[in-house]
Amino acid sequence: MDTYHIGWWNLENLFEIEDAPTRPEWLQNYLKRELKGWTAAVLDKKLTQLSHVILQMNDGLGPDILGVCEVENKNVVEQLLLKLGGLNRDYAVALEEGEDKRGIDIAFIYDKNKFTEHERFSYLVTKRTATRDIFQVNFKTNQNRDLILIGNHWPARMPSVYETEPYRIIAAETLSYWISRIHEIKGKDVALMIMGDFNDDPFNRSFTDYALSTNNRQKVMNARTSPWLFNLMAARFGEGLGSVYYSGPFMFDQVLANRGMTKSTADITVLEETAEVNNFDFMSKGSYGEPRRFGRPSSKSSYDPDGYSDHFPVSVKIREK
Description:
The chain is α+β, with helices and mostly antiparallel strands. 23% of the residues lie in helices and 33% in strands. It has a single domain (2-311), classed as Deoxyribonuclease I, Chain A (4-Layer Sandwich), CATH 3.60.10. The protein is built from seven helices and 17 strands. The N and C termini lie close together (5 Å). The longest helix is centred in the middle third of the chain and has 26 residues, at 161-186.
């Protein structure tokens, strides 16, 4: 059997330098004030800090696949990979440029010695204006089995939770429809994992009523028509852990699995006991043990060059027969 470590991390505004020549003019104008002082030296420090965390994941072996968000483009993710040389991994990047107004996207970093990218799809979720895509990548394992991953970055809670909740419900309903279509095409027993920064907790309505997420594994296994998902991070949230903190823990970053991965007889099975928040001691600060964010030079109150991100990574292991 083969065991794989699958992770997710919001990298907190991983942009190229403030005057990057590859940045479109409209985006350059929009980000001009925000990226003031985001020099090559600052970016290099940010990449070093992020890589220090990734190098510790999976007991120092690094993730086999890592989904990330809040990255500007493929180039800046590839710069991050250069910092991971000590892992002796042959990593590649899957990313599709979306239409987010700040230019931030979702990407997957994966080990080419263990997975082959087979197909990718990007589905634009819309409200009054375009929001971030649902990004799907279909991988093949070395045993030629399908492993489908879907990355998400749902609309933020600003200016208020209830004012923005309908936008996350739209994203959740779209995701559930998207999963139904995958099941129609690939079959309900295909291995499918959903991950992301959802800006909602496991027991918010967007998850329980619209994304059809539950912490009841048996309910997922017994599902015959609706595409119920097993939420691997719900139990960790119930233990008082969080991936992001605002005067207390919130589990915005989550990993979920479909029915095809919950059965013990499945070809690829999720190992629920391995689900964890990678809240390494060196990443934490404050009385609640919240993430030590890197911030940006244009915001003096948040900038900490010895920080990392305002989110902790989350991860789980899966096993292939």
